[in-house]
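Subject: Predicted fold for Aminoglycoside phosphotransferase family protein, 232 residues

User T.R. writes:
Posting the sequence so we have a shared reference for the thread.
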Amino acid sequence: WLERAGLPAVRALAGVEQPVDVDGVPVTFWRALPPHREAADRQLAGALRRLHALDPPGDFALPELAPFVRVRDRIEAAPTVSAADRAWLLGYLADLEARYAELPGGLPAGVVHGDAWAGNVVADDDGSVWLVDLERFSAGPPEWDLVSTAVRMTSFGTLDAAGYAEFCAAYGHDVTCWAGFETLRDIRELRACSYMLQHAGRSAAARAEAQWRLSCLRGRSGDRPWNWRRVF
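User M.O. replies:
I've generated the structure tokens; pasting them so everyone works from the same file.
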């Protein structure tokens, strides 16, 4: 479907019967991409603009966007979270689920990547931009993909205002001006926090970052942006 639409993306290897079961684990085979790097923000915006303009596939149905997938499991299994913090996180999750159910209208719903940060949209040396990690491809509000970049400025402090303005200009829309932005922002923040909480036992740095993110969500560490950082 993406190939027919002319949108570069990872491709399953043709002529190979798959998936293959290896000790109960399904294994699939994909064509290797040329040498590549994370896409620049303007390249990410352009790829998302093209993706969001596509008609849904006619020969199969995309699943509905699931913005809370794995979040509850991560919170419940987090190895370093106190009982009080775990209860707060689960309550906050329930609040966000209710807010998402009342999300206001915005851009026309359609095809979304589902996990559209720069590491999942890459550029090769010829300037082609490729979509990768298609696990969360779904049907839903395009704003979900756009919020992934917006929170880098508003919440995480890893993108400056000029960089975000370039992204918005390349896409043609600023999601922070939408009435539903804060809801999707808060969901993205909780997802990023729960991911780090899940991995807090891997190292002292991971544990410190997980506790910092939780402290920020609980209002203990001042206003956004909070300067969250990648640990691995």
